[in-house]
Design brief:
alpha/beta; 2 domains; four-stranded antiparallel sheet; Alpha-Beta Plaits; elongated; Mannitol-specific EII, Chain A
């Protein structure tokens, strides 16, 4: 799906007077139903779904950004939009600070992987402070839309011609969630996580090898396995190193890739 087609011109706005979470969700719902994909829905329905999602947990993140989103039965494509509130407002963000940038997604039911890819792509774009500043400095909605599109991939969900398998082995839990989140936008199918322990913990108990390792704490290991477009292998490694630092200089993270000769079947999303 082409991202430009998801962001209708009428779904982008700069709002100087909005000051509450309820008001910004109201405005988002009003903008969303202007998209042709939501022609059969009213703003109240979308607002109720967005509000219900916020009751699960706030979609306000660090850096003054929020990504309110919901899923709707009976639509064929995603609806994406952007609202800027220059003065900021309390959106109950995880860092406790006000939010100014609101990217909203209305997603079709049953498109979980594409939904995750959109969320990940938006998050990746807005992690960069210079990108956030660029959006906040836009003088009108036309300029805002153009700048936002320039930060996102042109297409999401296209089927790659060649695939590669990327595996990330992580000792401990410290980096796990951040790395998994950054890789979701690249995965061609649902990633798999395998949880286990380092073999060294078991070998220490074998009498023959008992003197080769000192007694160590139970070691937690996560293995993230995911399939990507072969052309995105280097980008996957770059995103991992954004979290872990240079792989050649640290410990506790191991990454390797394998070209896939055959790929068949499908996992549930």
């Amino acid at each position: 799906m082409r991202v430009e087609e998801l962001i209708h011109k009428s779904c982008v706005s700069i709002e100087e007077k909005i000051t509450t979470k309820k008001a910004v969700l109201d405005r988002i719902a009003t903008l969303a139903v202007k998209h042709p994909a939501l022609a059969d829905f009213d703003a109240k329905t979308i607002n109720d779904l967005l509000t219900k999602r916020e009751e699960v947990s706030s979609t306000g993140f660090q850096g003054g950004m929020a990504i309110p989103h919901c899923r709707v039965e009976g639509i064929a494509q995603f609806v994406l939009g952007l609202v800027i509130v220059p003065g900021g407002l309390n959106f109950h963000a995880v860092d406790g600070k006000d939010s100014s940038i609101f990217v909203f997604i209305v997603a079709p039911e049953g498109k979980t992987m594409d939904h995750l890819k959109l969320l990940s792509s938006i998050s990746q774009a807005l992690i960069n402070k210079s990108n956030r500043d660029l959006l906040l400095k836009a003088e009108n909605s036309k300029e805002l839309r153009k700048r936002f599109l320039g930060m996102l991939p042109t297409e999401i969900g296209a089927k790659p011609k060649e695939h590669a398998l990327v595996e990330v082995v992580l000792e401990g839990e410290e980096l796990f969630e951040d790395i998994l989140e950054r890789l979701l936008g690249l995965a061609a199918s649902p990633p798999t996580v395998i949880t286990g322990k380092s073999a060294m913990e078991y070998l220490h108990r074998v009498p023959l090898f008992a003197d080769l390792w000192s007694m160590r704490q139970e070691s937690f290991v996560n293995i993230i396995r995911f399939i990507v477009d072969k052309r995105l292998t280097n980008e996957a490694v770059r995103r991992i190193e954004e979290v872990s630092g240079p792989l050649s200089e640290g410990d506790g993270v191991l990454v390797f890739t394998t070209d896939i000769q055959y790929l068949g079947g499908k996992l549930h999303e």
